[in-house]
Automatic annotation (TrEMBL):
<feature type="domain" description="AsmA">
    <location>
        <begin position="3"/>
        <end position="229"/>
    </location>
</feature>
<protein>
    <recommendedName>
        <fullName>AsmA domain-containing protein</fullName>
    </recommendedName>
</protein>
<dbReference type="GO" id="GO:0005886">
    <property type="term" value="C:plasma membrane"/>
</dbReference>
<dbReference type="InterPro" id="IPR007844">
    <property type="entry name" value="AsmA"/>
</dbReference>
<feature type="region of interest" description="Disordered">
    <location>
        <begin position="996"/>
        <end position="1015"/>
    </location>
</feature>
<dbReference type="GO" id="GO:0090313">
    <property type="term" value="P:regulation of protein targeting to membrane"/>
</dbReference>
<dbReference type="Pfam" id="PF05170">
    <property type="entry name" value="AsmA"/>
</dbReference>
<feature type="compositionally biased region" description="Low complexity">
    <location>
        <begin position="999"/>
        <end position="1015"/>
    </location>
</feature>
<dbReference type="InterPro" id="IPR052894">
    <property type="entry name" value="AsmA-related"/>
</dbReference>
Amino acid sequence: MRKILIGLGIVVVLLLAAVVAAPFLFKDKLRALADKQIAQRVRAKVQYDPNGIDVSVLHSFPDLTLDIKNLRVIGLDSFSRDTLAYLPNLRVGLDIMTVIKGQEIKINTVELDRPDISLRVLKSGRTNWDVMISDSAAAAKGQDTSQVRLAIKGWQVNDGHLRYEDLTLPFRMEARQVNHTGSGDFASNVFDMTSKTTAGGLDMAYGGVAYVTNKKLDADVAMQMDLNKSLYTFKENQVKLNDFPFSFAGAIGLPNATDITYDVTFKALQTDFKNILSLVPGVFNAQFKDVAASGQVAFDGYYKGTQNALRMPGYGVNLTVTNGRFKYPSLPQEAKNINVKMVVDNPSGFTNNVKVNISQFHLDLGPNPVDGNVAIDGLEPMKVDGRVKANVNLAEALKVYPVPGLSMRGQFFVDATGKGTYSKTQMPVVNAAIKMTNGYVKSDKFPAPIEDINLSGTVVNKTGQVNDTYVNLPQFHMMLEGEALDGRLAAHNINSPVFDANVKGTVDLTKITKIFPLEGMTVTGRVSGNIAAAGNMADVDAGRYQNVKASGTVQAKNVTYRSKDLPQGVNISSASGTFNNNQIAIQSLNGTAGTSDFAANGTVSNYLGYLFTPGQALKGTMNVTSRNFNVNEFMVDPVSEKSTATGKGAPAKADGVVPIPKFFDLVLNSKVDNVTYDNLKLSNASGTVTVKNEVATLKDLTFNTLGATFGTTGSYNTQDLAHPKFDLGLNIKNLDFQKAFASFNSVKALVPLAAAVQGVFNTNFSVNGEMGQDMLPKLTSLSGKGLFDIVKANVLQSPVLSQIASLTTLPELKNLSIVNKIVDAQIVDGKLVVKPFDLNVGDVKMTLGGTNSLAGLLTYVAAINAPTGKLGNAVSSKLTQLTGVSNIQGTDRVTLGLNIGGTMTSPTVKLTSGSLKDQGKAIVTNVVKTKLTDALLGLATKNRAKTDSTQKATATAQQTSQEQLNLEVQKRKLEAEAKAKQAIGAGLNSLFGGRKKAAAPAPAVAPAAADTTKK
């Protein structure tokens, strides 16, 4: 016993020692290994806090647990704004002996707490999870691929959130409150893997249609894993969606790098109608367990074939509901006689070959019958043959099916048939009628009921030709809190509609949008009007507005609009206008946009073309005034094209770019008292802005800021929002050097000398380039030229001048005073080129010119002509060497050539030449001309490289497009072949009386359901 206690004590001591020592012994080693593996094996940005890594032996004893907090994986290129995974807590169980030995480290377990994972497939087929570099690719780079090995035996996900979006299908899936556990020996080649998964909420949508909404999932799956053959076979499994259980059988294989093979069948495990009823939206609630239901269900299907770039597996589904009924205990009536027969079959897998046959659909909502049937063959084109007929008392319907907080009354009738082909040029022969009498709708979520709803209408097409479709809504009437809205509509000739419509009444936007919510938008206010329009869209498209009868008046009060793209919101306090065929005359428009106020009047034309014909521009001339306007609030991110404003006031500085609307052709005569732009305050802004084709053209725009007067003419172009361009002519009067240096980054970078200058200047300068996301010029893109008129300036405490004065022993050059001096300058390839200009300081003449770069590097030359007697002995001695004149002091004047390099704060000044002639201008001019030529050549080389890059990118895109086209052609060919084989097989089967498959193709014409609406 004593030995046992001693042994146990030793174990406890060792364990405690391991708990204490593990973080110190292995933490740095494992962190270094993780960093190395991420750098070498992951094509993504991986972010985590090194201090958030911990190591212990308690959580997964005897394994060593590596715990990483708040790890985030962000994609690259097309996915640079997508977070692939956010892992608040990642635990990895490592084989402790492999860690101690320092050899290949085995990962035995993985646990994720509250992971948020988003998987995406682009239309091009690119996936955001393709971030791991394969062993072969890593080995080809000479990287060690043997440091980490997956030997996983178990894994766990706690309270996860998973999103999957495949734009190639298109398919979307989202699972919330996901809990998942799995086990299997991945160190073996053949083993059984078992897993259990639950989800508190599951959504699935295909082609924009939601098929599964907020359902609960419970799945137990066992699979045989054959890693040698890459074959995964379903064993015992059960999946439960809400109360509907089903199971899978068959296998999934990965025979090669491009194909996935499926041979899977599925079926319902129970046949009670109540189980499938739980999938109906809104049914799965607290009352559902007490619902009385009966009837039988048969459900089965298959998924079989190969998935690759050309093919998708075939699939089929059979669903039959026989004599279904259900009744809620709290409601007086039941839904009964529910009979459904549905077959979906597509053995080829090509979407366009699908056949859907709902040969029977019937139910009685209390005493109100609903009947329908439809047969669909293909999608493009789609052959359809179907009918729906219902005559429902809405109050009676609510006695069958509970909709909390909703009251309805009125009689709703619909009778519609359609038979024929639907395509871009054809549509089925249609005869549809709809009618509502004395309708009433009230919800707890609505501010008021919609009452007295009366409408009737028909849609008729007798020939199957698209343009022979006639829509007639002769009457529409409703009341919302005592305010009537009436209208009518008649239209035909869908490709170029002929229409006759009018609407009269008042609309309370606040109430209407609560009844019919607008996703991502908030609209309030009241709009009243009397609007009539009749004509032909062909005349609208051709601009023959005189042939269109349109007239009316519109008034708006306290209308507000707010959205994700416009979070600061727009408020129209009042507006009134009249319109006819040609134009809208806006008598008055007053409102605010964020913190900015505005008032406007004027005329707008081509509004019919703008509203109804894609690509046509809204034209007009408007007079706009404002007391205070904040440009910063209207900036958008150039990549996402979303607003950067927060909606809680203006950003302090510019963030994003200001977009110019695409389909506007407007002339805006503007006058604004105060403008906020970035960190500048502008006043008395006025001028004309023409907006057309995403370009704003400025004419005679003037404003005051920084105590100076600014005038500009030019353009701002956002046709490429990621790279907006500008081309402006600037005329600036009396701008202070110090204010310019403090306020404009371009001055700081290109004219660093301004930091040491006191005074004012004028300029007449033209400049073009690209705007950055902060709505400030990208300095590397600038080009321009013009004149700087230095009215008065004092250059004080300049390190450059101090060195020049020291080197030349001319102290008067240490500080300069400049009056009425014009300097000619040019911006080339982001460099400022200053052409030679002269200065006189007493009896000393100076000529200066050169360039400085955005990095602040100076490349200037100066020629100083001074009396020889003012020069010190050292300078005279140096000049003797440079000129070869032994008695330099015996000359009257001499010219010194200087090279100025370095930076403004750390300059270098060297004496490079000397001459007895006054040829300083020529010396400087020649050097500056060489610098300008070099800069122009550099710009030409850069532009040529950019053109080559663009051409290469275009060629690559064209090649990709051609490859996708070839792939689509192959798909279409295989699809047609499969459809032909399917048709031949069906014909032979019919001819020789062969038995049908489990999921039979839909018949060409569905049998008509019995007309029970006459009850």
